[in-house]
């Protein structure tokens, strides 16, 4: 089995160790494109339709041609088939504005092993620092050019925030708005439990809609949970009955420490993780 | 003469129409890298040392290994030599975190023809809309992970702002902070004249330090101008004796309209453009 699988949207399987992109691809010159990351488990990519819908929304926000979902579905099947059934993988869908010299957008799929940190996070949970994102919760509606609800390739500040957290001895980050509202992680959605109610901040507050959080919310009421969107402040996290960073590959990762404070209430820990597992098994 | 010149930092001249980058380069997967754009004119790259200094500062902010300036100087000479003396070019220096699988950073240089819009902007000036950047002028000092003073490859929102301006019938953008302070253009520094004083907002307000503006400020006092950094508001632009978007390739582009208001005071128009021309001839 190959260590990484690379497929282009035209359905060609490529050598992942051969160069693919031109030096003048807007994806690299300007981080100008969109992407998705899906979990591949037991030979199946998870929540494909939620990811394709979000990619289409991101593409629209970024002024890219609408992705052809049938083409992407076929290419996803091909990539997953090449990856096999025996191990988990992280499947990236990448869609850039293409070359500066013109032509079609660049579109490819890359499957790689799940990062080692993911296994540790799933098992042990994570410590998190809150960092200021610098803008107000109402910026997204006033300033569409900020692309706040789009998953673009311009992730340099997200990566810098994670390095900053690491320098403070923490594993991950929760961004807060200039008013002190909880937003999201650099690569995850924040979900908390208050009793059997699951809460996450409204995407309209400048947050990327979370595909895995959406899948969780879809199945919640069949399992005796209520789920809803609500403005959250850091204090809500401290008194919650559980705080998770929810994402496609790591799934539900428990936050055990926030800004140095242990989050001790654990009544629902384990149950929510299992429910996310179930959600990505059943929701497409 | 080649239509584009591609050189890698190891000193190899490459075919610009052959793929160079791997699908898992962090430059494309996350816009995780830094860049510079230099003007090539009469067989010489302009303000090379200012650009290399800024690239080093950007790399430090982004946690990339310090660029070897001697290596870059040699590669710049090679690229410019390949490009020739007979036409202007835009020389991009691109430096990414490299492949996800590890290894060295990715580093290459690309020379391309100057975009057609640049000629029109130099000749006719531009109309500009002010757009909210969404954060405060003091964010840069509080939140280094926002990389506000670094020229990273994560330029998707800058490109989206330019598309937004175009949809409003304008040529370019000036960003303002959440307090209403003038910041910068998506690819330029704002410089205004108040009498014979040239003013630009302080880089500490979350602005990329402008190499061409720095070169202009270096020569200003030899030409009977005073130059200094000062907080500016849109009203300061409306009553100024000239407003320019200053950048490496377009040089000084006069703003003739701001948010639909004609900027009529033109006493210094022409003189500042010539001074910027002179600055990039003489300052390294």
From TrEMBL, chains A, B:
GO terms for molecular function: 4-amino-4-deoxychorismate lyase activity. Pfam families: Aminotran_4. The keyword Metal-binding does not apply. Gene3D superfamilies: 3.30.470.10, D-amino Acid Aminotransferase, subunit A, domain 2 (3.20.10.10). It comes from the Bacteria. Coiled coil: none annotated. Keywords: Lyase. Belongs to the class-IV pyridoxal-phosphate-dependent aminotransferase family. NCBIfam families: PRK07849.1-1, PRK07849.1-2. This is Aminodeoxychorismate lyase. It comes from Rhodococcus zopfii.
């Amino acid at each position: 089995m190959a260590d990484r699988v690379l497929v282009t949207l035209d359905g060609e399987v490529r050598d992942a160790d051969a160069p693919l992109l031109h030096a003048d691809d807007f994806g690299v010159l300007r981080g100008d494109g969109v992407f998705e990351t899906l979990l591949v488990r037991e030979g199946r990519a998870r929540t494909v339709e939620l990811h394709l819908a979000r990619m289409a929304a991101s593409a629209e926000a970024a002024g890219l041609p609408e992705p052809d979902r049938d083409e992407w579905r076929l290419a996803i099947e091909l990539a997953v088939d090449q990856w096999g059934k025996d191990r988990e993988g992280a499947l990236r869908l990448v869609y850039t504005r293409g070359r500066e010299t013109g032509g079609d957008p660049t579109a490819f799929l890359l499957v790689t092993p799940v990062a080692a940190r993911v296994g540790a996070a799933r098992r042990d949970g994570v410590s998190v620092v809150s960092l200021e994102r610098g803008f107000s919760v109402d910026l997204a509606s006033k300033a569409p050019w900020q692309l706040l609800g789009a998953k673009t390739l311009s992730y340099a500040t997200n990566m810098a925030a994670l390095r900053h957290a690491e320098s403070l001895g923490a594993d991950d980050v929760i961004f807060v708005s200039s008013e002190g509202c909880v937003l999201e992680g650099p690569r995850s959605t924040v979900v908390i439990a208050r009793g059997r109610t699951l809460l996450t901040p409204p995407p309209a507050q400048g947050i990327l809609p979370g595909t895995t959080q959406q899948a969780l919310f879809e199945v919640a009421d069949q399992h005796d949970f209520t789920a809803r969107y609500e403005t959250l402040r850091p204090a809500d996290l401290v008194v919650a009955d559980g705080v998770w960073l929810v994402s496609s590959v790591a799934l539900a990762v428990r936050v055990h420490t926030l800004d140095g404070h242990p989050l001790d209430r654990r009544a629902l820990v384990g149950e929510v993780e299992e429910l996310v597992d179930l959600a990505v098994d059943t929701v497409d």
